[in-house]
Amino acid sequence: MAKYALSSNFSTSLRRLSVTVVMASQVNEDTSWLQRLFPFWKHEIYITDPPGTNSSLISVKGLESMVYLTYIIDNYEVLPDVVIFTHGGRYRWHHDDPLYDNARVLSRLQIPYVQEQGYVNLRCVWTVGCPAEIHINRKGGDKDLANGGPLPGAVYAAAFHELFPGRDLPSRVGTSCCANFAAAKSAIVARPRQDYERYRRWLVDTDLDSSAGAKVLEYSWHIIFGKEAAFCPLARQCYCKVFGMCNIPLEGPGTSKAMYSLPKFATLPDGWPWVGWDNQWQNATSVGYIPGEELIDSLPTALW
Questions:
Q1: Is the bond leading into 131 cis (omega within 30 degrees of zero)?
Q2: In the chain, which ranges are continuous DSSP H helix?
């Protein structure tokens, strides 16, 4: 049975720095892998759709953004050295890994680098979000947004003025999607708690629906934590610095087919990664092979 082999640098960093994973999950998602594979981190798992309730703070507007803001507000005085903000579900289409495996993404994360930089995106690939997702002067409408398209510039601009009063409006905004990132305590507390409370009030009060409000924040977190509006580090630098993977082959400044390809569908097949797109068994060890890494902690019980 294959196990994760954590690097010595990763293991050493864990002894030095406190880390909490803040996860926005849903009631039907299996989050047991987090405790099983990362018992040395603290976990704060927020269920966004508790059954039988309609008044939970975490079940209102804003999707993962409400979770992240609530954690920061409630724990502002007792934050760990590093906070990892991520979605529930181990396998999702946007995770920067050949198998879309968030466990492998987290196992590579260079915690001291997060503390040094203040903020890092958990995606290095530019697919969706980079080099610029939002062009302020781009014409667009609600139809684009309703169909999952980028935020119209006017929509983001209006929100930006409320979120960042007095700050100059950028001409374009970009960062790799999809609201999975890590932030150091120093970057979080560089803003007063009142700022995060104001962001949360905006999220609740805005006329934008839950998804659109979350998308505004998705393309604002990097700004909140001190990065420029168009924050798209070169993939080579990102993989090396953020994940300790300095020999990844690349096809362009933000492209590595060895690490990420946009999947056929946003929803992965049941049984992934041992069940492929044709609903047939596949050798996940071969499909997701990266030299020097073990892939899967265990086979799904159903496939023994």
A1: yes
A2: 8-16, 32-37, 64-75, 102-108, 111-117, 142-146, 153-163, 185-188, 193-205, 210-218, 221-224, 235-243, 284-287
Q: What is the mean pLDDT of each run of 10 residues along the chain (304 residues)?
A: 42 72 92 94 88 52 93 98 96 96 97 98 98 85 56 93 97 97 99 98 94 96 98 98 96 96 94 93 85 58 32
Amino acid at 189: V
| Beta carbons of 150 and 207 less than 8 angstroms apart | no
Other CB atoms within 10 A of residue 14 CB: 15
Kindly report, residue by residue over 129-181, the tens digit of the pLDDT: 999 999 998 765 544 555 566 788 999 999 999 999 999 999 999 999 999 99
The ranges assigned to domains in the chain are 8-303
Residues in the chain: 304
Predicted structure pTM score: 0.89
Q: Single out the residue of 298, 295, 270, 271 nearest to residue 284, CA to CA.
A: 295
Q: What are the beta bridge partners of residue 281?
A: 275
Q: Read off the pLDDT of residues 55-84 as tens digits, 9 standing for 90 and up.
A: 445 556 889 999 999 999 999 999 999 999
Helix/strand/coil percent split, the chain, to 5 = 35, 10, 50
Contact 65, 217 (CB under 8 A): yes
Nearest partner of 20 among 75, 62, 69, judged by Cα? 75
pLDDT at site 137 = 86
Asked if 124 contacts 214 with a C-beta cutoff of 8 angstroms, the reply is no
